[in-house]
Write a structure and sequence with these properties.
Elements (H helix, E strand, L loop, with lengths): L6 H8 L1 H19 L7 H30 L4 H4 L1 H20 L4 H27 L4
Helix pairs in contact: 2-3, 2-6, 3-5, 3-6, 5-6
């Protein structure tokens, strides 16, 4: 039996605003947890910084993958955009966390980077598979 998702719930799950809010809250909370061994307010600052970065990266990651996938042809279209997006995200995360004094930078960015890179790979594959290797 296939469950039918109510229209309102379906629209909510597709909402960009919801995705941004989830990124902000989930990854901000992760950063607080990753830095919990340090004196307050450092974990809270790390959470605010990571939440803000994750919200912004959520907004731009889809656009970056769209842009990159159009720049590659053949099989490179399938594998090249996600690692490029990952390196860009990692650079931004490290730079901003270093500038704001996050104590546990690697622990703080590991999970958000894994999630964003997984999203980039899945999204890139889905749009590249529709286009095929040659176009």
């Amino acid at each position: 039996m296939v469950a039918v998702m109510p229209n309102a719930l379906h629209r909510l799950l597709r909402s960009g605003v919801i995705h941004v809010l989830v990124a902000l809250l989930a990854m901000g909370s992760w950063a607080v947890f990753a830095n919990r061994a340090h004196a307050m307010p450092l974990p809270l600052y790390a959470g605010l910084v990571q939440g803000a970065i994750s919200a912004c990266l959520t907004i731009f990651l889809k656009s970056v993958i769209d842009w990159l996938s159009k720049r590659f042809v053949g099989s490179a279209r399938f594998w090249a955009p996600p690692p490029i997006a990952c390196l860009g995200s990692a650079s931004i995360l490290v730079a901003i966390h270093a500038a704001t004094g996050t104590p546990e930078i690697l622990k703080t960015i590991a999970f958000p980077l894994l999630v964003s890179t997984s999203y980039a790979a899945i999204y890139n594959y889905s749009i590249s598979a529709r286009r095929g290797f040659d176009t």
